[in-house]
Protein: 2-hydroxyacid dehydrogenase
Amino acid sequence: MKILAFGVQADEQPLIEKAFTDAGLGEAHCLKVFLTEDTAPIAAGHEIISTSVNADLSAAVLRTLAAGGTRMIAQRSTGFNNIDLDVARGLGLTVARVSYYSPHSVAEFAWTLAMAVNRRVVRAAARTRDFDFRLDGLLGRDMRGRTAGVLGTGKIGEAFTRIAHGFGMRLLGWDVAPNPECVALGMEYVDKDELLASADLISLHVPLLPGTRHLIDAGALRAMKDDAILVNSSRGGLVDTEALVDELRAGRFAGVGLDVYEAEAGLFFLDKSLEVVADDTLARLVTFPNVLVTSHQAYYTVDALEQIIEATVRNVGDFLAGRRGDNVLAG
Structure:
């Protein structure tokens, strides 16, 4: 059995290849290219493929895969907003995801972004490389005693909250239901408007669904404090980026840390340094001195990768054995 894996990073490849071999499930052939409408024909003859978070699994791609003999798609991510599940079901494709991996990887990186923009770390590092050791413009704030607002208090939001508690912050949460672990830490659950108006640091940890798209829209941004810090390490579509740029142009926010971007497909994970990037919104976003954008790397730790790959191998094993595992979304 040959498994074709799309969108594999260099650090991932030996881990993926070894995991499938050790499990006795056959050979995993890893490709750097991402699954798109143009690359989908490469999968012809492969019964099982594995995809990354930015894969295009729209109707046209799924039809090409099915016509080429693909029967199972093992996505190496938790999110699945990129998959047309209705079409997959209609084609008889089995689709599985990774429903859980280390929440600490993402939560810790969210805090890395928050503290980097708060303490102006990127600007400071760039200055010292030029032997400019001035402190002008590098003024930050203590987190202790300030208010952290956590939108989404599942496993990742809970891990973020524990770190905020360690800083000695007041904790506000918003979710469909309170997390008892967060309540035990002293979190107060409030409505979204109150959280946005009260929080000094706002971090997003909700999935991207039709009801959460542009959860942080122009109105939500205007409701925030002028000196708030906004962090998004979840999904880019949670934030209306054009509205965010408008607020940044008006001189608002102490800092914005983004590990995701709503139009990141075709950009993130790729080297575009020798090309003209035509995305005017992203081009403007990265020019602001109080904004830090990273390339969807919050999950990228050895611990998380090992758990993601282990779950992916288990999903493939279940499929080959005719079992329907807990991670199956279609089929």
